[in-house]
Each structure stands twice: as structure tokens, then as C-alpha cells.
Design a protein that fits this description.
Two copies of one chain form a homodimer. Chain A contains 14 helices and eight strands. With 368 residues, chain A is of the alpha/beta class.
Chain lengths: 368, 368
């Protein structure tokens, strides 16, 4: 057994954690709040943060132009803004997009590189520090070093990572997800679940990481029935945020696998949300890997209370009329792009491009 | 649910991790190796470290005068030595004593305070960084911020903690425990178990931390039979070191409880090893707390494969002829000292000095 474990983020979880820990905001003299158009305000997180920054006499500016699935231009714009306003730390608020964008902006603030060089770059200088405040329970980005960015020139998403891209502090307050609409709650919960499951399945999985992932799968399972009937209580919100944090901790150590590699094209080309994209692939992903990991597959089904992979597949299509239909050419293109993702190499069952193309055909109906 | 989670130590676990990660030693220009008389050499850790330091062209000096259960004078001597030789980081090698001493030495190197001020002190300056290399599987100190020191003026052990006392990197290589004699293996394994169990029982326990602790208890349980018959294979060594690391991660978040508070006097006054001291108290500790934590108590017994607390008590007296006998006065003194420990306040069942005195009487035979 060989493994590494490290969770350098100071994760503070629970109702009211921002106001309870206002000292944590003393990371610099000038904060840049990085967020999207709405979620920071709607969630109530922005008000709490502004109160604390005012209390602590820390000046701030707001960059609220992070797009969904941010691309390189978008984060470059944020970095220009951060430098112009003299920010020396970032408070990132929102779903995965603002949190991932903040990591890229933090990198570009201190490293004189082209945005495209973020990918695979060994950075010379420490990033400006980040405080992360999630307003969805899915991405887990608040506790990971990953920044996933859309790269139009490559027609896909790519991620970068660095020891400096871990947030310094993460405030996970389930109340900030209370205003999240039902379908977005489902999509993001499925994203969290995909992290837990892929980490558990990853070639890089370790006993300690498995314990974290299984705890998350157990907690997700406790919410499963309530998610189905739309009974999203405060207790469910809390559990989903907890499961999401666990998913983030888990993939920090293992990365993701083929479900993510395959999901990206559905988001890039079809505009399907990230969590939903993964969920569409989940059943075939389990079927594919069952021969390599029979015990883990049984364990996941047992914890979820499903008798079969079909039953799991049916659950994870909740709220979906039918899968989109992909042409054979689309299947080939997506398979090629999926194989270009590092996550494909961490899949327990080794696959080639033809295998992945077949998977797309099975799931998305083999249209012409 | 409110909780914090943070594991800033870069834990690298497995055979050969030091040589595989020689770059991690580049923490400064001059290393001070902090260790006791023998274990660094006997374990083989010292040779690996010296090879890597030589490869990396990092100069070093050795302070090998750490005593068992180091006191303030001992760590003060180490700090004088560290400053004289101009060390800017520490490589601590050994059991709990050298690792805990290293944290105190690292603090004293950069903070102009009296050694006694280590206790409860808010430190002004960051400590010099520490690399920790355990040669026992018990303390978990390589992944905790705790430094437990013997304080003769208080007739007990006391600990201090700081965000800076976490080692930067921990290299947990099970091979370094191969030379550990059987009884020391048992004693330290019992120490690791006490961390796992007390963290699980602690008033500060959280679901995430429970998952870590239960993973450790499960792994300890896998070794239980082999420990009994002295079949300490390489596989058992690996599992025990893994369980010890999990215990360290667990108590980093919760601290310990009454078992530790009560154990310290047995070490201080009777010279009984730390792990053994805890083990002597374990059964009555479980009985005491059973009413508060019936489910957790059942879970621990179930994982260990015991039908009753008596059976657990019998197991944890392995290799012991009989408990020492304490006089009534000793019971009173020890109870008073135990109540002065912060860990007593984290016990699930609230206790007063009389309760603790009764516990000592029950366990240690009510001698005169």
C-alpha cells in the first residue's frame, strides 16, 4: 500500500460559519469577490461576506462576470480586473464556475503567462490566496485544487492543478443552497455523487480515500428518496453539501475517471449541465467497470439500496424525458475528445477510443 | 452539523517513500535531525534520510538526546543546539517522544519565550518547518499538531498545539517499525487504538472524523489476532502504521478524552508506557461512556469482534500479568491531575474528580 493524503484547505462547515470565523478573512488588504451574475446575491452569501469584510475593515471590489463553464478569455478578464483593482486575495462565491475561475484568476495575478499556459503549467509564483464559498452542493471545488476551464480551441474542458490552487479556507454553509431550484439541486447532487463514485473506482483509490468516498455515498443515499419526491428539506440541503465536500476531498486525491471524460462533450456541444452529463453515463460506466471492481460495484448498489445497475440508471435519469440522440460522427468525435482527458487513464477498466465510442452509441441511441 | 476539517500535513505512506520523494527535503539549507538514542539508527530511517540529504546537498546536524517522555529542559537543550548550528528546518525521527520534542524545538527556535510558555501560548512567529518520520505505529504525532511534554513542576504531561506545529511532510514507511520489539509493538498499537476510539467517542467527534476513526478501528481489528499470537508480519506492520496515521488524523480534529487524561499519571509516576497506560483504563472507560454512546460502543465491539466490554478489557491486558496497585491517596492525586487535563472535558460522559477517583480504584485494586 502506497498513498498520499493531504487536505490543506481549512474547511469550515455549517450554518453561520462565515460570521463565526470573520478573522479568517484577514488574508490581505484588498479582496476581489469573484462570482457569477446571481448566485452570490440570491444565496445570501454575498451579504454575509460584505458584512464580515466591512467589520474587518477590508476593502473589496466585485468581479461578477464569471460565465457558466468559464473559458480562458473569461478568466483572463477577471485577472486583468483583479490586477487593476490591486486585489491581494480572492473571495470566490458560487457554484463550480466562479470557484474554478477564481483559481485561474489567482494564478494569473502572480504568474506572467498566457491564459492557455495555465494548462499543464508548472507555476513559478504562489497564487494570491482564495477563500471559497460554495452556493451549490456538487462541484466540491471549495476543497479541491482543480480548476476546470472551457477551451474553445480544443472543443472541450480541461483542468489545471497546483498546490497553490487549493483554497486557503472554504466556508460550506448549507443555507446558501436554500434558494437553488429543484432541477439544479438534482443536477449538482448528481455531480457530487459522480465524484464520490469515480474516486472510489479510480485506479488511484486508496483505503483512506475509499473511507471518505463511502461516507459520502452513504450520506447521498440518505437523501436519495427525498430527492426523488422533491422533498428538499434543510436536513437534505445539509447532507448534500456534506456529500459534496466529501466528493471534493475524495477527488483531490484520486482525480476523476471515464464518467467525467465522457461527460465534458455533452456539456460543451449540447449545453447539458455537468452533473446531468455525468449522470447520463453513470449506468454504462458501472456496467463497464463491474468486471474490474465487482465488490466495489456491489457495495455502491448496496449503499444506494438498488438491486441492479439498471435500477441505478433509472434513478439517475430522474427528471429527464430522454437522452439526447447523437450521430455516429458525434459519438466518434466525443470519444476522441474523451480519450484526450487525463481522467480516462484513471478508469479501472482500460478502454480505447472504439470502446468509448461504443459506450456513447449504447447510451445515446445510435442516431444517424 | 458544524465541523472543521483540515489535514495540512503532506502524508506520504508506504515502503520507500523517503527516497521516492527526496525533493520534499528542500525545506531549507540546514537540517537538524531530532531523535532519541537508538530508534533512528536501528529502524533504518536514519540511513535513508542521510542518503537523501547528501543527494540534495543539504547540510545537517544531529541532536540525538531526546529522552522518553521529554520534559521542558530536554526540548530547551534541543532548541539551543538547533540555534547554535543554524538549522532552518527539522527532520524528526522516532516514536512520539522525538516527534513531540521536535515541535517544541521548532517553536523555541523562532519564538523568544521561556520553555514553560510553550503551554497554552499563542505564538508570534511561524516555527521552523518539520519533516516527521515515525519509527513506531502508535503516536500518530507525524500528522498531528500536538506536542506532549512532561512538566515536572506540575507532576504530569501537558500538550501544546499551534497551526505551525503540524509537520510539513510526514513519511510513514512501515519498514522502519520492523525492528520494534514485540511488547513495544503491542504498547504502541494500543496507543493508536486509544486515539481512534477516543476520537470516535469525543464530544468533538463529527461524521467525517468518525469515518476516519472507524476505518482505523477496522484496520486494527484485522491485526488483533496476529497481535495476540505475536505474528507481526510485514502486512501487520503496514496495517498498524496505517491505523496509527488514521488515529493521528482523527485526534487532530477532536483531541483525546478521559482515557488519556487518566493514563498520564501512570506514565509519570509509575513509568508505564503511554499506550499501555491507556489500555489499562480502556474497559472501564467504555463502561463509563456506554450509557452516553450505546451505539458507538456496540459498533466498536462489533468491529473488534468482541461480545462484551469484559472481553475487550481482557484483550487489552495482553502481555500484562496484573495491574499495578494504587493507594487511595494515589487514586486521589491522579484523579485531581486527570481533571486538570483539557481532554477530560471532551469525555462524552461528564465526570467529576470523585468519579475519576472511583475509576482508578476500580481498575487499580483499591490498595492502601
Amino acid at each position: 500500500m502506497k498513498f498520499k493524503f493531504n487536505m490543506p484547505v481549512n474547511l469550515k462547515f455549517g450554518s453561520g460559519v462565515i460570521k463565526d470565523n470573520s478573522e479568517d478573512f484577514k488574508l490581505g488588504r484588498k479582496a476581489l469577490l469573484v462570482t457569477g451574475k446571481n448566485s452570490a446575491r440570491l444565496s445570501g452569501a454575498l451579504d454575509d461576506i460584505l458584512d464580515v469584510l466591512t467589520d474587518q475593515k477590508i476593502s473589496f471590489d466585485i468581479f461578477d462576470k464569471v460565465e457558466n463553464n468559464p473559458n480562458l478569455d473569461n478568466v483572463a478578464m477577471g485577472a486583468v480586473y483583479a490586477k487593476e483593482c490591486g486585489a491581494d486575495f480572492i473571495v470566490a462565491v458560487g457554484g463550480g464556475s466562479p470557484l474554478d475561475a477564481a483559481k485561474a484568476i489567482a494564478a494569473l495575478c502572480t504568474n506572467d503567462i498566457e491564459p492557455i499556459e495555465l494548462l499543464g503549467k508548472k507555476f513559478e509564483n504562489p497564487f494570491i490566496p482564495i477563500i471559497a464559498v460554495p452556493t451549490t452542493s456538487g462541484t466540491g471545488s471549495e476543497v479541491t485544487p482543480y480548476s476546470v476551464l472551457t477551451i474553445p480551441s480544443m472543443k472541450t474542458k480541461k483542468s489545471f492543478t497546483s498546490p497553490w490552487s487549493f483554497p486557503k479556507v472554504a466556508f460550506a454553509d448549507p443555507r446558501y443552497t436554500y434558494s437553488l431550484p429543484y432541477l439544479k439541486t438534482v443536477d449538482t447532487a448528481f455531480d457530487a455523487f459522480s465524484h464520490l463514485m469515480e474516486s472510489y473506482y479510480s485506479l488511484r483509490s486508496t483505503p483512506l480515500n475509499d473511507a471518505v468516498a463511502l461516507e459520502g455515498i452513504k450520506v447521498f443515499a440518505e437523501c436519495k428518496g427525498d430527492i426523488t419526491i422533491g422533498n428538499i428539506t434543510e436536513d437534505v440541503r445539509e447532507k448534500l453539501m456534506y456529500a459534496s465536500c466529501l466528493g471534493g476531498i475524495a477527488i483531490s486525491h484520486t482525480g476523476t475517471t471515464l464518467m467525467h471524460s465522457m461527460g465534458y462533450s455533452l456539456t460543451y456541444f449540447k449545453g447539458i449541465s455537468h452533473g446531468r452529463s455525468n449522470a447520463m453515463i453513470l449506468a454504462e460506466y458501472m456496467r463497464l467497470n463491474k468486471s474490474e471492481l465487482p465488490e466495489k460495484t456491489e457495495k455502491v448498489l448496496e449503499l444506494l439500496g438498488f438491486d441492479s445497475i439498471d435500477e441505478a440508471g433509472s434513478y439517475f435519469s430522474l427528471g429527464l424525458d430522454e437522452n439526447p440522440v447523437l450521430s455516429d460522427e458525434e459519438c466518434r468525435t466525443y470519444a476522441n475528445l474523451a480519450m484526450g482527458q487525463g481522467s480516462a487513464k484513471l478508469n479501472p477498466k482500460s478502454v480505447n477510443e472504439d470502446d468509448v465510442c461504443d459506450l456513447y452509441r449504447i447510451i445515446f441511441g445510435g442516431g444517424q
